[in-house]
Protein 1
Amino acid sequence: MSRKQRDRGAAAVEFALILPLLLLLVVGIAEFGRAYHLQTTLSGAAREGVRVMALHNSVTSTRETVRGYAPDLHLTDDQIRVTPSSCLTTASTPTATATVTVTYPMRFVTGLFGADLTLTGKGTMRCHG
């Protein structure tokens, strides 16, 4: 029996052994790439929202701005936390800072990587610029 006949199915067996690992790697890259994209979207939305809060002192406008910068996420008021609720400076707090925190529960598309992941974007800015 020649060597060529003995090695005939080796490539198919090797491919069958490696294919699940390659698929897991590709799916993992896609899932965590999506998580990174959502995280940067949340951070950008929080940063724009806190800018509106610091300059215009309006919680309603802040939440609308955050939703405008992340329209595909369908954020609710409970997911957008604005502190403090007013950006007025007083004698006791002459340099108040506003903070906007946006949370979003991300579901993995494939379900291979465990439970949902809660992503958070946060922005902080001194009131009145």
Protein 2
Amino acid sequence: MPAPTRPAARLTHAAALTVLQAAIAHAEAIGVPENVAVVDADGNLLAFLRMDGAKLLSRESALAKAVTAASNGAATGRLPADLAVTVALASGGHLTNLPGGLPIVIDGACLGGIGVGSGASDQDVAVARAGLRAIGAQDPDPAA
């Protein structure tokens, strides 16, 4: 009989706070107020901050970006446009194709996701990348 359980790495709240703080520091450095969400591999919110001046509704898209990146183990914003609406509708608005969500991958395992919203797409992605670097997570697209 196969083992009924298996060990799994989990993202800690301390790591989530480190990711959040590094992302916020980068957003401050580039002068863009952002909403930043960090979730675990199951999509549970571990850390969130809405910077002064960040767009109110971008808090929802930041969380959706984080959940999408964690659930797919891939950066958001890469689906063909004709699938983007379908994904959003099929998930009840919990998943999105907006850029700014990156998976948190360490040693090949997806431990969660970071989602950033309120800036331009390239700014959101840059802020998310800063969060990944803070804990040595893999960049899903290092060439970009």
Protein 3
Amino acid sequence: MRWLLTLVFAFIVLNGLRGWLSRIGLGRVPGDIAFKVRGREWYFPFGSTVLLSLIGWALARWI
């Protein structure tokens, strides 16, 4: 259950920071899905979530 809450929180944060993250290259990672339905764009950052989770894990192990 805790991993699901973490995943949902990561999706919310990544969607909120999408404009800034796309300038540094995140959001175009293989595994990120973006599509339009009825004029609205939907974005699911699966690849970016995994990448940022691994970076966070490595930092937590290092500290």
